[in-house]
Amino acid sequence: MCIPLNVFPVFHGRTRQQPSWRSSVLRVLVALWMLGPWGLAVALDLNTANAQELQQIKGIGPRTAELILEERQRGGPFDSLQDLADRVKGIGAKKIITMEQSGLKVETGKAAGKALANKTDADIRRKP
């Protein structure tokens, strides 16, 4: 039995079913663009962030960022997000969940090392 060759359509280059790599890249870029800044968010450490970085987190505005920085300066680094809620007025459990989902985190190892470094620097400055 012989199958005639003209039954199967021939496309020069690529077939319609196989999209080019350019269209695949374009689809990925469009998907990332549609996700907005939340799709590209990276984790932000509470104990090292400045006011502008804190304001990138959902739920933190200029005043809240200022309160966080003042409390961090006064009481030292935060041990956890719960510690943040305990020490800064206006931050509760729901806001903590929103902030954590937006990328806010606390690195405990850095917090302890930074607190020790700040204390050592303060002691050196006080002594004649």
From TrEMBL:
Leader peptide range in chain numbering = none
Q: Which SUPFAM superfamilies match?
A: RuvA domain 2-like
* Annotated Pfam families: HHH_3 (PF12836)
Coiled-coil regions listed: none
Cite the Helix-hairpin-helix DNA-binding motif class domain residue spans from the record.
52-71, 83-102
Name under which the protein is recorded: Helix-hairpin-helix domain-containing protein
